[in-house]
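Newbie here. two chains, one complex. Structure please?
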Amino acid sequence: MDLRDLFKNLDEYLNKEITICGWIRNHRDQKTFGFIDFSDGTCHEHLQVVYNNNLENFEQITKFSLGSAIEVTGTLVESEGTQDYELKATKVTLLGDCPGDYPLQAKGRPTREFLREIAYLRPRTNLFQAVFRVRSVAAYAIHKYFQDRGYVYAHTPLITTTDCEGSDQMFKVTTLDFNNLPKDKDGKVDMTKDLFSKQSYITGTGQLHGEAMAMAYKKIYTFGPTFRTEKSNTKTHANEFWMIEPEIAFCDLNGLMDIEEEMLKFVVKYVLDNCLGEIEFFDKFVEKGLKEKLTKLVNSEFVRISHHDVIDILKNADIKWEFAPDYGEDIAKEHEKYITEYFNGPVFITNWPKDIKAWYMKVNEDGETVAAVDLEVPGAGELMGGSQREENYKKLLQRMEEMGVDKEPVEWFCNLRKFGGCVHSGFGMGFERLLIYLTGVENIRDVIPFPRTPGNCEY
Amino acid sequence: MDLRDLFKNLDEYLNKEITICGWIRNHRDQKTFGFIDFSDGTCHEHLQVVYNNNLENFEQITKFSLGSAIEVTGTLVESEGTQDYELKATKVTLLGDCPGDYPLQAKGRPTREFLREIAYLRPRTNLFQAVFRVRSVAAYAIHKYFQDRGYVYAHTPLITTTDCEGSDQMFKVTTLDFNNLPKDKDGKVDMTKDLFSKQSYITGTGQLHGEAMAMAYKKIYTFGPTFRTEKSNTKTHANEFWMIEPEIAFCDLNGLMDIEEEMLKFVVKYVLDNCLGEIEFFDKFVEKGLKEKLTKLVNSEFVRISHHDVIDILKNADIKWEFAPDYGEDIAKEHEKYITEYFNGPVFITNWPKDIKAWYMKVNEDGETVAAVDLEVPGAGELMGGSQREENYKKLLQRMEEMGVDKEPVEWFCNLRKFGGCVHSGFGMGFERLLIYLTGVENIRDVIPFPRTPGNCEY
């Protein structure tokens, strides 16, 4: 049986015989008895296994090393003196041993940098086991939120020839042999010889295809891997990450904020309800006050304020900014931090200067701002970014021309405005950013099982 | 409100005023009244909107064309003479019109081939709307099955430098400029100049990384896009498709078959329960008997038989085979078909000749077969393929040497056997193959919203 089921139904199994398979996470043996810290990875909790020299292979058992796979049969009993439970073993069998050069020994606490070097083993540590379980549960919470509300999960393509982020930020994909590239008559590489008969990429967003789906299903979401070629070695950049991109027809910017707020609260609450052990572990060892921070978010009301009014607040603040706040500019990390502290909670910042935002966003009536919204969250910065989309065909084309966006590859996307177009809005949430917020773990490399960053693509 | 909610609570809304936004799927106007076939895409059902010349913009409404986005306010009433419901409009507003060159007109039935050319619009047709909604619901059912049972959803990397399928079947990924490739001193392309400092690929499987996760969490599953470079233009091949790859520690081949069978029945039942309208639609227009086929699967017990015994049956069959059955060979499509018809249901075929299977599969004690299993399903052929993995470090290395598999890139994978290794098993299910089975739609291009096949990477 799984420890997960055991810990959910302790009363049912008390004083009963059970058999479990898992791994030795720690081992202390005395002359006549021993304790095994046992985990099978199905839940945050470990179970203490107690064995004594009544067992015929007692001497052998005392030598079972940390990391070994074992099967234990025994009786679940209450521990003496505490409220905890332990397993009084009647049989302990070695299934797979683990040599002394196993990198995860009990002594010393390996650094996170070292653990990144052994990414294939680190899910066995308490920290990473908890992080990646929260990753799984949070992913499910996102699916559950949208599916319960009738959204269609849209599998937008990864390989693409169109992208709204610009192809200079995209990985090229090919089946051609780099050392034997076909050339055209001008001596350029002949991409018509590639599998798709043209240059293709792996995508940085599912938004364009998501909009096509929203024009059929009203409410859709994507949830899948996305890619950027950025050569940044920072705590928040990875070349491969997961994104959630909902898109909703007949929904304006206010409706979008309602959805963003409701979804985030749902997901955080779901994780609190289903990963309490993990959250308390992070609270203790990673970010003091994490549980309170998350609980507060669930019960807070998010502020909604325009970019213009945010700049007012920043200008009036009695602070010497590194970057001077400006009505026509983006806001810096220091500003984000100040604003979420100023309002003591999450803040939607709306109506951004059009020049710093994307071409597909709806220009407001003032002609200067777009109906975009960023959600700033205390301690995490920008968690989601969204906008109402330009639904007017002519205005969209005009804006593309102004901004030098090539129409040809996205003509089908523009056509969505011609054929029964309507007010619609969508947002993107970087899944890893959410996980950094949920776990307190600061580095994106530590919330992705096998992270890809410049120069790093092991495993 | 959404039609989905309306159709779930018809009694509640009967004779009440409601407002809905969606699209005109058909329109018939008479002199003094008109009917709009209205859909908002949130459910399979459409709603009939009735309007008459009491409305002040009656003349305008009669001109609203198919495909247009509209908002309707009205009272939900029972249709005269039938058990159905309709909306008696008090207000109909045009939100976005749709010109006469809209490719999806009511007259004539466009071919699936034509609809593939307008992949961004085809989710608006009854068929594709139903297919991609089933895709969404089936995806969720898969998540639900595994999450309810404590599996961890493992996000294995898409970009990788190791792969157990062989790099000749993988797309290369790069940030290098094809027309200006850096060269090393031997005149070869210098891959150390690429973003990851070496040649990287987009993956064909998450299995290797999944095994690492299973050795920490006991039970994991992956669910994400995978890629193959095959240049096949067949009904069942696409270059980008989605796979589910569960991996379970302390689980042998029999345990694996239990999981495969339970999961498949769960997913099929979930789709029957939640997409009955869609299934009945497919039953009527795509595959007669589909609903019965699916219901039967849920209630059947899957046969388990060895490859050897299957060959016996094939040899004894009074049939002139195109491909002669052979104990040492794979079985052909004609054999798959015969066997599922022979047993009149799904069949697990176990213990395959080792020479036709992968290097990581556990060799049975006979030294000739491996503990692999394929699930053959009536009408769909091979739906899942799995195996018990070789958990013995030395035997694995020996097998790799025999089969000429390079150890260096998968050394970490082999190490999983050294550090607390144990009996473990896993399988892969191609999600599109499941969808073909669930919908009766035969071509993989028609169950993927934006399919990628050789020469085809539009949108």
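Moderator note: Chain A touches chain B through 107 residues (CB under 8 Å). Chain A is about 30% helix and 25% strand. Thread marked as resolved.
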